[in-house]
From TrEMBL:
It is found in: Membrane. The chain crosses the membrane at residues 474-498. This is Intercellular adhesion molecule 3. Residues 105-181 form the Ig-like domain. PROSITE patterns: IG_LIKE (PS50835). Residues 509-535 are annotated as: Disordered. GO terms for molecular function: integrin binding. One of its GO terms (biological process) is cell-cell adhesion. It comes from Pongo pygmaeus. Its main location: membrane. The keyword Glycoprotein applies. It is a single-pass type I membrane protein. Keywords: Cell adhesion, Disulfide bond, Glycoprotein, Immunoglobulin domain, Membrane, Phagocytosis, Phosphoprotein, Repeat, Signal, Transmembrane, Transmembrane helix.
């Protein structure tokens, strides 16, 4: 503890009119509650007797001497006045000091805030303070974060300080608290601060309009359909809770926020036991308030159409039954012929022929649900098994082609399963291609067996190829003309050389030339010398 030393005393006259003092130290000290204090009482009277200390506090004499005494005061819990007294020359001298005790508040608490506070409405901050003295030095401050909202003195015990605040979006998530300030600075001490635990405020905006719910009017059992629920003007949208349900079945919703808009999307799948009138519900909850939208929905079952063939792959000539059926209350129509009544099957029979191979049968089904018509179709294809055949119209039996020309043997086979077609020359294994171009010569002349075969049998067609040979006499004449022209050319050349020889005397031929060039005779040769060797 610290204190300010002052002197206050009562005076008494001495023997020759001198006045004596009784001092109490420290003078008017300030202590924290429960603190202790050493008090010293002293006087300048030489004839003083024993000094006494009068107080209601717990005291203990520490030491004394001529004209002084020291006392230890402990557990000082409240303001108190202490008196020191002594007799001097038969008169009592009294000295006093006032002890001031300061106490920090025992409880500083901000009352709980609303769990959710609507934006635009007032709420009250309440700070409750118990204990704390001296009250004249105690102040209560209400805060948002570190911003002062209100500052008021603590008057009553316990004290409650309030402030009214208008909630806004900016208050969402803010921390509010209250603080006490015990100002003991004028007494030479400090400013003692005590702050409550903070409380967080959550503000919200929930529009009065219900959500927009987009859902189907009809839903087939065991099928799925998307459901959307949207609410605008929501704050904070990220903290809203969404509940989507089909009847008693909760839907797994995916929630997306864009600003103040919330959209929940789910996939609704109805069970067979939910057939009939149902309801889709969307609840959006925020701040303890709820907005709800509902839409009626009819769950129905639509079985079929189921289209069957008695024999999907039927041999030619066999009887095939085609049937189409669907669930109760469903009207079926098979190849344009309706069933006798809703819920009844439709049938037809036929003798399978080659022309029925690949034939398609169609069945349509219609169901009425609460004035709405639903349609479904189904189709099936019949496969008729029949033996191989060759179309005579596309496969000529007598062909007349010229030698060394290109042609295509246009023959086609049909059947189910599809047959293999081969054309072989009679008496040999020679095969001609079918359907692709090939080069014809005289060796192709003859009769061919064109046979189509499959697991259903064989079919044979005879094709005769008559190959006309080319004109060979004309070719021989042409070759003779060419030979004759060559001989005449050689003769004319020899005659020309002979004539030149007569004109110039002698000549020789260059062996390496094929055009037989002539050379003139050398002067030595003209003089009768032997001719040189031909070059």
């Amino acid at each position: 503890a610290c204190w300010t030393l002052l002197v206050c005393c009562l005076l008494t006259p001495g023997a020759q009119g001198q006045e004596f003092l009784l001092r109490v130290e420290p003078q008017n000290p300030v202590l924290p509650a429960g603190g202790s204090l050493l008090v010293n009482c002293s006087t300048d009277c030489p004839s003083s007797k024993k000094i006494a200390l009068e107080t209601s506090l717990s005291k203990e004499l520490v030491d004394n001497g001529m004209g002084w005494a020291a006392f230890y005061l402990s557990n000082v819990t409240g303001n108190s006045r202490i008196l020191c007294s002594v007799y001097c020359n038969g008169s009592q001298i009294i000295g006093s000091s006032n002890i001031t005790v300061y106490r920090l508040p025992e409880r500083v608490e901000l009352a709980p805030l609303p769990l959710w506070q609507p934006v635009g409405q007032n709420f009250t901050l309440r700070c409750q303070v118990e204990g704390g003295s001296p009250r004249t030095s105690l102040t209560v401050v209400l805060l948002r974060w570190e911003e002062e909202l209100s500052r008021q003195p603590a008057v009553e015990e316990p004290a409650e300080v309030t402030a009214t605040v208008l909630a806004s979006r900016g208050h969402h998530g803010a921390h509010f608290s209250c603080r006490t300030e015990l100002d003991m600075q004028p007494q030479g001490l400090g400013l003692f601060v005590n702050t409550s635990a903070p409380r967080q405020l959550r503000t919200f905006v929930l529009p009065v309009t219900p959500p927009r719910l987009v859902a189907p009017r009809f839903l087939e059992a065991e099928t799925s359909w998307p459901v959307d629920c949207t609410l605008d003007g929501l704050f904070p949208a990220s903290e809203a809770q969404v509940y989507l349900a089909l009847g008693d079945q909760m839907l797994n919703a995916t929630v997306v926020n864009h600003g103040d808009t919330l959209t929940a999307t789910a996939t609704a799948m109805a069970r067979a036991d939910q057939e009939g009138a149902q309801e889709i519900v969307c609840n959006v909850t925020l701040g303890g308030e709820r907005r709800e939208a509902r839409e009626n929905l009819t769950v129905f079952s639509f079985l079929g159409p189921i289209l069957n063939l008695s024999e999907p792959s039927a041999p030619e000539g066999s009887t095939v039954t085609v049937s189409c059926m669907a669930g109760a209350r469903v009207q079926v129509t098979l190849d344009g012929v309706p069933a006798a009544a809703p819920g009844q099957p439709a049938q037809l029979q036929l003798n399978a022929t080659e022309s029925d191979d690949g034939r398609s049968f169609f069945c349509s089904a219609t169901l009425e649900v609460d004035g709405e018509f639903f349609h479904r179709n189904s189709s099936v294809q019949l496969r008729v098994l029949y033996g191989p055949k060759i179309d005579r119209a596309t496969c000529p039996q007598h062909l007349k082609w010229k030698d060394k020309t290109r042609h295509v043997l246009q023959c086609q086979a049909r059947g189910n399963p599809h047959p293999e077609l081969r054309c072989l020359k009679e008496g040999s294994s020679r095969e001609v291609p079918v359907g692709i171009p090939f080069f014809v010569n005289v060796t192709h002349n003859g009769t061919y067996q064109c046979q189509a075969s499959s697991s259903r049998g064989r079919y044979t067609l005879v094709v005769v190829m008559d190959i006309e040979a080319g004109n060979s006499h004309f070719v021989l004449v042409f070759l003779a003309v060419l030979v004759t022209l060559g001989v005449v050319t050689v003769v004319v050349a020899l005659m020309y050389v002979f004539r030149e020889h007569k004109r110039s005397g002698r000549y020789h031929v260059r062996q390496e030339s094929t055009s037989l060039p002539l050379t003139s005779m050398q002067p030595t040769e003209a003089m009768g010398e032997e001719p040189s060797t031909a070059e």
